[in-house]
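Q: Please design a sequence for this.
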Protein backbone atom coordinates (compact mmCIF):
# COMPACT_ATOMS: atom_id res chain seq x y z
CA UNK A 1 0.00 0.00 0.00
CA UNK A 2 2.77 2.41 0.93
CA UNK A 3 4.56 1.60 -2.32
CA UNK A 4 1.38 2.36 -4.27
CA UNK A 5 0.95 5.75 -2.55
CA UNK A 6 4.59 6.64 -3.13
CA UNK A 7 4.31 5.71 -6.80
CA UNK A 8 1.15 7.84 -7.16
CA UNK A 9 2.86 10.84 -5.57
CA UNK A 10 5.87 10.48 -7.84
CA UNK A 11 3.58 10.28 -10.86
CA UNK A 12 1.80 13.46 -9.84
CA UNK A 13 5.10 15.23 -9.27
CA UNK A 14 6.18 14.32 -12.79
CA UNK A 15 3.17 16.11 -14.35
CA UNK A 16 4.19 19.70 -15.18
CA UNK A 17 2.04 22.41 -13.63
CA UNK A 18 0.37 24.56 -16.24
CA UNK A 19 1.24 28.21 -15.74
CA UNK A 20 -1.63 30.68 -15.56
CA UNK A 21 -1.83 32.49 -18.89
CA UNK A 22 -0.61 36.08 -18.74
CA UNK A 23 -2.87 38.95 -19.68
CA UNK A 24 -2.01 40.28 -23.15
CA UNK A 25 -0.08 43.54 -23.17
CA UNK A 26 -2.22 46.58 -24.09
CA UNK A 27 -1.34 48.88 -26.97
CA UNK A 28 1.04 51.61 -25.78
CA UNK A 29 -0.92 54.49 -27.33
CA UNK A 30 -4.22 53.25 -25.90
CA UNK A 31 -2.64 52.99 -22.45
CA UNK A 32 -1.15 56.49 -22.66
CA UNK A 33 -4.51 57.95 -23.71
CA UNK A 34 -6.19 56.20 -20.79
CA UNK A 35 -3.61 57.53 -18.33
CA UNK A 36 -3.86 61.10 -19.63
CA UNK A 37 -7.66 61.06 -19.54
CA UNK A 38 -7.77 59.86 -15.93
CA UNK A 39 -10.30 57.61 -14.16
CA UNK A 40 -14.04 57.72 -14.82
CA UNK A 41 -14.71 58.48 -11.14
CA UNK A 42 -13.41 60.94 -8.56
CA UNK A 43 -10.36 59.93 -6.53
CA UNK A 44 -8.23 61.09 -3.62
CA UNK A 45 -4.62 60.04 -3.16
CA UNK A 46 -1.46 60.68 -1.19
CA UNK A 47 1.68 60.88 -3.33
CA UNK A 48 5.26 60.54 -2.12
CA UNK A 49 7.85 62.45 -4.15
CA UNK A 50 11.53 61.51 -3.83
CA UNK A 51 14.48 63.35 -5.34
CA UNK A 52 17.81 61.57 -5.83
CA UNK A 53 20.87 63.80 -6.25
CA UNK A 54 24.30 62.29 -7.02
CA UNK A 55 26.32 61.74 -3.86
CA UNK A 56 23.52 62.93 -1.56
CA UNK A 57 20.79 61.28 0.49
CA UNK A 58 17.36 61.18 -1.16
CA UNK A 59 14.89 63.86 -0.09
CA UNK A 60 11.14 63.38 0.03
CA UNK A 61 7.88 65.29 0.36
CA UNK A 62 4.21 64.30 0.18
CA UNK A 63 1.26 65.71 -1.72
CA UNK A 64 -2.50 65.29 -1.42
CA UNK A 65 -4.19 64.83 -4.81
CA UNK A 66 -7.90 65.07 -5.63
CA UNK A 67 -9.68 65.00 -8.98
CA UNK A 68 -13.01 64.51 -10.73
CA UNK A 69 -13.58 63.27 -14.30
CA UNK A 70 -13.21 66.06 -16.83
CA UNK A 71 -12.19 68.58 -14.16
CA UNK A 72 -8.84 70.07 -13.10
CA UNK A 73 -6.53 68.11 -10.79
CA UNK A 74 -5.71 69.59 -7.38
CA UNK A 75 -2.30 69.00 -5.76
CA UNK A 76 -1.56 70.19 -2.26
CA UNK A 77 2.18 69.80 -1.71
CA UNK A 78 3.31 69.53 1.91
CA UNK A 79 6.78 71.21 1.98
CA UNK A 80 9.72 69.60 3.73
CA UNK A 81 9.83 72.49 6.23
CA UNK A 82 7.15 71.79 8.85
CA UNK A 83 6.06 75.42 9.34
CA UNK A 84 5.88 76.24 5.63
CA UNK A 85 2.43 76.64 4.09
CA UNK A 86 1.22 73.99 1.64
CA UNK A 87 1.72 74.74 -2.05
CA UNK A 88 -1.54 74.30 -3.94
CA UNK A 89 -1.74 73.76 -7.70
CA UNK A 90 -5.08 73.37 -9.50
CA UNK A 91 -4.47 72.70 -13.17
CA UNK A 92 -6.58 71.77 -16.16
CA UNK A 93 -5.87 68.38 -17.67
CA UNK A 94 -4.05 68.28 -20.97
CA UNK A 95 -6.18 66.87 -23.78
CA UNK A 96 -5.26 63.19 -24.05
CA UNK A 97 -4.67 63.26 -27.82
CA UNK A 98 -2.46 66.37 -27.50
CA UNK A 99 -0.43 64.77 -24.71
CA UNK A 100 0.07 61.57 -26.68
CA UNK A 101 1.26 63.50 -29.76
CA UNK A 102 3.73 65.47 -27.62
CA UNK A 103 5.09 62.30 -25.99
CA UNK A 104 5.39 60.48 -29.32
CA UNK A 105 7.38 63.41 -30.72
CA UNK A 106 9.97 62.90 -27.96
CA UNK A 107 9.88 59.24 -26.96
CA UNK A 108 9.73 55.66 -28.15
CA UNK A 109 7.18 53.96 -25.87
CA UNK A 110 7.03 50.27 -24.89
CA UNK A 111 4.74 48.35 -22.50
CA UNK A 112 5.47 45.62 -19.96
CA UNK A 113 3.94 44.26 -16.76
CA UNK A 114 4.43 46.68 -13.89
CA UNK A 115 3.78 44.82 -10.66
CA UNK A 116 1.67 46.21 -7.81
CA UNK A 117 1.55 49.87 -6.69
CA UNK A 118 -0.66 50.91 -3.74
CA UNK A 119 -2.29 47.46 -3.86
CA UNK A 120 -3.27 47.81 -7.52
CA UNK A 121 -1.94 45.88 -10.52
CA UNK A 122 -0.25 48.05 -13.12
CA UNK A 123 1.17 48.18 -16.62
CA UNK A 124 4.56 49.83 -17.07
CA UNK A 125 5.41 52.26 -19.87
CA UNK A 126 9.08 52.87 -20.69
CA UNK A 127 9.72 56.19 -22.43
CA UNK A 128 13.03 56.28 -24.31
CA UNK A 129 14.53 59.17 -26.22
CA UNK A 130 15.19 58.62 -29.91
CA UNK A 131 18.81 57.76 -29.07
CA UNK A 132 17.63 54.87 -26.90
CA UNK A 133 18.22 56.49 -23.49
CA UNK A 134 15.53 55.64 -20.93
CA UNK A 135 14.22 58.99 -19.66
CA UNK A 136 10.96 58.11 -17.88
CA UNK A 137 8.92 55.13 -16.70
CA UNK A 138 5.20 55.25 -15.90
CA UNK A 139 3.10 52.73 -13.97
CA UNK A 140 -0.60 52.79 -14.94
CA UNK A 141 -3.47 51.12 -13.05
CA UNK A 142 -4.81 48.27 -15.19
CA UNK A 143 -8.44 48.89 -14.23
CA UNK A 144 -8.89 52.68 -14.00
CA UNK A 145 -5.97 53.99 -16.08
CA UNK A 146 -4.78 56.15 -13.18
CA UNK A 147 -1.08 57.01 -13.23
CA UNK A 148 0.17 55.31 -10.04
CA UNK A 149 3.92 55.89 -10.22
CA UNK A 150 6.50 57.61 -12.40
CA UNK A 151 10.27 57.78 -12.44
CA UNK A 152 12.68 60.13 -14.23
CA UNK A 153 16.25 59.08 -15.08
CA UNK A 154 19.47 60.87 -15.89
CA UNK A 155 21.51 60.25 -19.04
CA UNK A 156 23.65 57.69 -17.18
CA UNK A 157 20.54 55.71 -16.17
CA UNK A 158 20.60 56.83 -12.53
CA UNK A 159 17.26 57.53 -10.89
CA UNK A 160 16.64 61.28 -10.53
CA UNK A 161 13.06 61.45 -9.28
CA UNK A 162 10.25 59.12 -8.17
CA UNK A 163 6.57 59.98 -7.66
CA UNK A 164 4.44 57.18 -6.22
CA UNK A 165 0.90 56.98 -4.86
CA UNK A 166 1.06 55.47 -1.38
CA UNK A 167 -2.64 55.81 -0.49
CA UNK A 168 -5.62 55.81 -2.82
CA UNK A 169 -9.39 56.14 -2.49
CA UNK A 170 -11.02 55.24 -5.81
CA UNK A 171 -13.82 56.14 -6.18
CA UNK A 172 -13.95 59.08 -3.78
CA UNK A 173 -16.30 62.00 -3.16
CA UNK A 174 -14.55 65.25 -4.12
CA UNK A 175 -15.92 68.78 -3.65
CA UNK A 176 -16.08 70.40 -7.13
CA UNK A 177 -15.54 73.82 -5.54
CA UNK A 178 -12.03 72.77 -4.51
CA UNK A 179 -11.07 72.21 -8.15
CA UNK A 180 -11.41 75.75 -9.47
CA UNK A 181 -8.20 76.68 -11.33
CA UNK A 182 -6.25 79.65 -10.04
CA UNK A 183 -5.57 82.59 -12.41
CA UNK A 184 -2.56 81.78 -14.58
CA UNK A 185 0.72 82.88 -13.01
CA UNK A 186 2.84 82.37 -16.09
CA UNK A 187 3.94 79.43 -18.25
CA UNK A 188 3.04 75.80 -17.81
CA UNK A 189 4.49 74.28 -14.63
CA UNK A 190 5.22 70.57 -14.01
CA UNK A 191 2.98 68.71 -11.55
CA UNK A 192 3.32 70.12 -8.04
CA UNK A 193 5.32 73.22 -9.00
CA UNK A 194 3.64 76.56 -8.19
CA UNK A 195 4.58 80.19 -8.76
CA UNK A 196 6.32 81.50 -5.63
CA UNK A 197 7.42 84.99 -6.61
CA UNK A 198 9.35 87.22 -8.97
CA UNK A 199 12.51 89.27 -8.50
CA UNK A 200 15.27 90.57 -10.72
CA UNK A 201 13.28 89.63 -13.81
CA UNK A 202 13.10 85.94 -12.80
CA UNK A 203 9.86 84.11 -12.06
CA UNK A 204 10.40 81.40 -9.43
CA UNK A 205 8.53 78.09 -9.16
CA UNK A 206 8.84 75.46 -6.42
CA UNK A 207 7.31 72.23 -5.16
CA UNK A 208 8.65 72.67 -1.63
CA UNK A 209 11.73 70.59 -2.34
CA UNK A 210 12.95 71.58 -5.81
CA UNK A 211 12.80 74.88 -7.68
CA UNK A 212 13.45 76.48 -11.04
CA UNK A 213 13.45 79.98 -12.58
CA UNK A 214 12.17 81.41 -15.84
CA UNK A 215 13.88 84.60 -17.02
CA UNK A 216 14.45 86.64 -20.17
CA UNK A 217 18.10 86.73 -21.31
CA UNK A 218 19.11 88.67 -24.43
CA UNK A 219 15.56 88.50 -25.72
CA UNK A 220 15.24 84.74 -25.14
CA UNK A 221 13.31 82.91 -22.38
CA UNK A 222 15.63 80.69 -20.34
CA UNK A 223 14.76 78.02 -17.77
CA UNK A 224 17.24 77.01 -15.08
CA UNK A 225 17.05 74.83 -11.97
CA UNK A 226 15.70 71.41 -10.97
CA UNK A 227 13.93 70.32 -14.15
CA UNK A 228 14.44 67.50 -16.62
CA UNK A 229 15.32 68.79 -20.09
CA UNK A 230 11.99 67.77 -21.62
CA UNK A 231 10.04 69.48 -18.81
CA UNK A 232 12.16 72.60 -19.29
CA UNK A 233 11.40 72.52 -23.01
CA UNK A 234 7.69 72.29 -22.31
CA UNK A 235 7.81 75.25 -19.92
CA UNK A 236 9.05 77.27 -22.91
CA UNK A 237 6.24 76.14 -25.23
CA UNK A 238 3.82 79.00 -24.41
CA UNK A 239 6.61 81.55 -24.90
CA UNK A 240 7.49 80.07 -28.29
CA UNK A 241 3.99 80.49 -29.68
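A: Design:
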Amino acid sequence: MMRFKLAALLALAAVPLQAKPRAPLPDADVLVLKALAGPATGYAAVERVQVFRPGKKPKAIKANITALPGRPVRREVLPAKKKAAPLVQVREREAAATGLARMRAIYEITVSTGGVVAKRKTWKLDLRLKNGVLRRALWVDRDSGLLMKRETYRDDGALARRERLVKLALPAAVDPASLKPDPSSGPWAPDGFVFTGESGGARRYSNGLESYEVRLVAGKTVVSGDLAEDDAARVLEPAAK
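Q: Thanks. Anything notable?
A: The CA atoms of residues 195 and 205 lie 4 Å apart. The two ends are 86 Å apart (CA to CA).
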